[in-house]
Amino acid sequence: MSIHFVSSSILTKKLTAKSLNEISVLRDTLPLFNHVRQFDIDESLTTIVSKFKSFSDIIILGTGGSSLGGKSLCEFAADSAPTTHFCDNIDPKTFKKLFKTINPATTGVIVISKSGSTAETLMQFMVCLDHWKSHQLNVSNHFVAITEPINNTLGQLAADHSIQCLDHATDIGGRFAVFTVVGILPALIAGVDVNKFLKGAKSCLHKLDGDISSNPAVQGALIQQNLLSQGKTISVLMPYIDQLNTFALWYRQLWAESLGKNGKGTTPVAALGTVDQHSQLQLFLDGAKDKFFTVITASYDKNDDFTVNYDAAGLSLYQGHTMGDLMEAEQRATIDTLKNNACPVRHIHLDVVDEYALGYLMMHYVIETLTMASILDVDAFNQPAVEEGKILTRQYLAA
To answer: SS3 for 240?
Structure first.
């Protein structure tokens, strides 16, 4: 995997002694990093995976960090694995449609909430419980929950129905939890190579053991600090890889929820090439010059591609070319067009798109996010502003 910046005009500031020390301390003591270094798939997890693999469908209930990480991993699901359905909203029509397509008798349900009090997840859980009960099924054979090992509503509701509960790490927040059982359990059931994913994450984390200031993730944060001082308040992540579309949404939550505090932060935008060449690219190129771009590209194996040969007017350009050839040409064209229009661009190229690459990318962005939080002097691990909405929701529901 290669990472480089296309725009030569981008200047990097130096990491302050304060931030250098903070990143050094996090590298050595952060529970998330220690968890990744030591993660092991224990016997209890293996037993659940074996049981749930026998189902034809798996429903994952959760929202935000309880959903996006696992969903990103499950983009690499094996063809023979159960079909996964990530339910991260509470639209009744979506659930009615889902219930029409699955057979409860052959479907397993994973319920995830770190706090155990997430209103949306609790509602999803109760609706599913009622649906499974209406089919005269023993819910304890079909459900498993993940929540903190403390007395909370989700844990109590699960206990009332003899549903097994797995512990959500108390010292790892939801948006960072993809490297824990929250992301790993759905991935294992889906046949994802979790060991390769964790190896990629460890490889990226290991690079932090060297010179912190020259680490690519740290450099990325420093460059964005410099661009922020120039009015670049929006960070666009644009993979040219369908399997990384959900990853871009995971990044959006990680960056926004970790950094948007005290009037600070930059706005993350998820895009997808080539789709957004026909949607957002006009704004990117000809709108306000307030954006920083990261474009993720890939190479394509001609043995796993499609070659076309049609002898018709207007199609000579495509003769003998593959779909991958067109994708690579469009990747290059977008990067060069952004550069030619004075848009600062970072280019990340993946020689292979697999679980290792995803693990590496996710850990890269965790490090970049934590570095940016240190630079902006905000707490990357809380989200105080959203509490008012939660309080008002409960008040309105009670009324």
So the answer is: coil
- CA 42 distance to own-chain centroid: 24
101-110, 288-297, 300-309: the lowest-pLDDT one: 300-309
Same domain, 144 and 291: no
Q: Is residue 289 part of a domain?
A: yes
Please state, as a whole number, how many other Cβ atoms lie within 10 Å of the Cβ of residue 170. Answer: 11
Q: What is the number of domains present in the chain?
A: 2
Q: How far apart are CA 338 and CA 282, in angstroms?
A: 11
Tokens of 287: 């709108």
The band of 8, judged by pLDDT with boundaries at 50, 70 and 90, is very low
Give the tokens for residue 309.
């040969």
As beta bridge partners, residue 235 has 268, 292
- Asked if 201 and 72 touch (Cβ cutoff 8 Å), the reply is no
Same domain, 219 and 348: yes
pLDDT, position 353: 95
Determine how β-strand 143-147 pairs with β-strand 83-87: unpaired
**pLDDT, tens digit, for every residue of 300-326?**
888 889 999 998 888 989 998 999 999
Q: How many CB atoms lie within 10 A of CB 157?
A: 19
Q: CA–CA separation, 277 vs 7, rounded Å?
A: 20
Residue 397 lies in a domain: no
